[in-house]
Specification:
The complex is a heterodimer of chains A (about 300) and B (about 240). Chain A is about 75% helix and about 5% strand. Chain A has about 300 residues and is mostly helical. In chain A, helix 1 packs antiparallel against helix 7 (about 155-175), helix 2 (about 25-50) runs parallel beside helix 7 (about 155-175) and helix 2 crosses helix 12. The two termini of chain A are about 15 Å apart. Chain B contains 10 helices and 10 strands. A 6-stranded mixed beta sheet of chain B has the order 6-7-8-3-9-10, sandwiched between helices. In chain B, strand 9 (about 205-210) and strand 10 (about 215-220) form a beta hairpin. At the A-B interface, helix 8 and helix 9 of A face helix 2 and helix 3 of B.
């Protein structure tokens, strides 16, 4: 077993062990962090590995959340079909958006993805009769049951979040070691060169975006199902910026970075809000410090200093 | 011998200026052809149209008898053409081995053992065997040029287009380069865009001279060397413009 596989399996094992020892408050937090870290892992495939700086990933998160949430709200289909529909919505949306947005690159790509995401946000508000707009809706706890397990129960919730997070993490590790993942990196580093090695970079970027969006949608669907709520704020600009921040803090283009960044940011806000109402001030200063002294993020810095082969 | 690459009436202009004008060009399978010409003669524009980085205004390009004018660059590479950049364009943050592996993997896919073999061979042939795990950006300029060629080798192309491969190389490196190209000529057709006349005269089977976007002359090194029109073009005397 390679060191990197050992590291990632070690994290998975550690998170499982924490289920049995953490006090209730931290236990709940970590379930939330793991669910959101799936989103960061998805974002990292597009941004960290393929170099696609999207400012509109909230639309994919929301596609998963509403795909699952609306199905449960209006039908008796159940949580598993809801989760599956969430994934399909995210993948389908990414395919459509990608075909258009990937004709652009760089700053234009940022703007186009931002605009598409805003269009989705406004669509959610427009169909307020079904989505209840900003206010959102509670997903009935009776519907959030899989094989007799209540997803709202804190123990079940932790384990489901852990299982999904672990799957996303190990998938991500597998993907970036595959030839396809290596070509994603090649596109990030030097797209014209990748084309002249015979790679159809448009198709590959579309592939990366769809994978990224599907994982992001899984996070959105899981969030809705585990925490029982869907609201339009999850489709807003803020939720497009979050994964970018998490990934930058944790280390873009590292498999473990998205989790570290999500955890760090969550506790940074949690701890600083315990000290002062102006918690964003403390969070902001810390973020500036990190960008100054570890510009490649936490895992990126570890890779630079100690472990060059960290995937 | 049969033609591996043919252009007919290939033309391209930039804002009314004819960079390449109605070029008919035939490259025979297995030869080493040099493409030379004074600065601004249209060499880079011409090869950019061959590999598909630039679309022609008029004319056609055929590779192995099939019209590829409408194909994008990556599809031409997938059919067996390779191109090394004039300005070094490697994946600078990746290791030399990974650079070459990217070139080999499109053909060999997930067969890790075959990719590793191909990488080792391409690096050894270009003399980079002991630099495999060095990041490309940490290689010397000459070694980066060689890495470009190693990436070309690993694609096992049937036609290799080398754009100014010896630019910036030291004399000793040029000697090694010449040996490598001679060795390579047994496996693939080579189109060499080159400034260094010593390299051209020594390596090329035939030479094509471009001037003002048109083919000025074509022939063996001896013929080109003796051609007064070529001398004029390079010396820029009155007759060249007449």
């Amino acid at each position: 077993m390679s060191r990197s596989l050992a590291l990632h399996l070690g994290l998975v094992a550690l998170l499982l062990a924490l289920n049995f020892v953490l006090p209730p408050y931290a236990h709940g937090n970590l379930a939330r962090v793991m669910t959101l870290a799936i989103y960061a892992i998805g974002y990292n495939i597009a941004f960290g590995y393929t170099g696609l700086l999207s400012l509109g990933h909230a639309m994919f998160f929301a596609a998963g959340m509403y795909g699952a949430g609306l199905l449960l709200r209006f039908t008796e289909a159940g949580a598993l079909p809801g989760f599956a529909l969430g994934l399909i919505c995210g993948a389908g949306l990414a395919l459509a958006v990608g075909l258009l947005a990937l004709r652009t690159a760089g700053v234009s790509f940022m703007i186009v993805t931002l605009m598409f995401s805003q269009a989705i946000y406004l669509t959610i508000l427009y169909f307020g009769a079904y989505t209840r707009g900003d206010e959102g809706f509670v997903i009935d706890s009776a519907a959030r049951v899989v094989a007799g397990f209540d997803l709202g129960d804190s123990g079940v919730r932790y384990l489901v979040a852990w299982a999904l997070f672990s799957a996303a993490l190990m998938f991500s590790l597998w993907l970036v070691n595959r030839p396809t993942g290596r070509v994603f990196v090649a596109i990030r580093e030097n797209e014209p060169r990748a084309r002249l090695l015979g790679y159809d970079t448009f198709r590959l970027k579309l592939q990366a975006l769809v994978i990224s969006a599907t994982i992001s949608a899984a996070s959105g669907a899981a969030y809705g199902l585990l925490f029982g709520y869907a609201g339009a704020s999850f489709a807003g600009v803020q939720y497009s910026i979050f994964p970018l921040l998490w990934v930058l803090l944790g280390g873009a283009g590292t498999v473990i970075g998205p989790f570290l960044g999500t955890l760090f940011m969550f506790y940074l806000i949690d701890l600083s809000s315990g000290i002062t109402d102006a918690y964003m001030l403390i969070a902001g200063v810390t973020l500036i410090g990190l960008t100054l002294f570890a510009p490649q993020g936490i895992a990126g810095e570890i890779r630079r200093r100690f472990w060059r082969a960290l995937p | 011998m049969s033609a591996i690459l043919e252009t007919r009436g290939l033309s391209r202009s930039f804002r009314g200026l004819q960079a390449v004008h109605a070029v008919d060009f035939t490259l025979e399978r297995g030869e080493i052809r040099a493409l030379i010409g004074p600065n601004g003669a249209g060499k880079t524009t011409f090869v950019s149209m061959l590999i598909g980085r630039l679309a022609p205004d008029a004319g056609t390009v055929a590779f192995e008898g099939r019209d590829i004018t409408a194909l994008p660059d990556h599809a031409r590479v997938a059919r067996g053409m390779a191109y090394t950049f004039q300005i070094t364009s490697v994946f600078s943050r990746l290791t030399a081995a990974e650079n070459v592996a990217l070139a080999a993997r499109r053909r060999l896919g997930t067969d890790r053992a075959a990719v590793a073999r191909e990488v080792a061979e391409a690096l050894a042939r270009t003399g980079l065997g002991d630099r495999a795990e060095v990041a490309a950006e940490d290689l010397s300029y000459g070694h980066q040029r060689l890495l470009e060629i190693a990436m070309g080798l690993a694609q096992r192309p049937r036609l290799m287009i080398l754009d100014e491969p010896t630019q910036g190389l030291a004399e000793s490196e040029i000697a090694a380069f010449k040996a490598l190209i001679r060795d390579l000529a047994a496996e693939t057709t080579i189109l060499l865009i080159e400034h260094n006349m010593g390299v051209v005269m020594e390596l090329a089977d035939r030479i094509t001279v471009l001037n003002f976007g048109e083919v000025l002359a074509e022939g063996t090194p001896a013929e080109i060397h003796a051609d007064p029109r070529v001398q004029d073009a390079y010396l820029g005397t009155e007759r060249a413009h007449a």
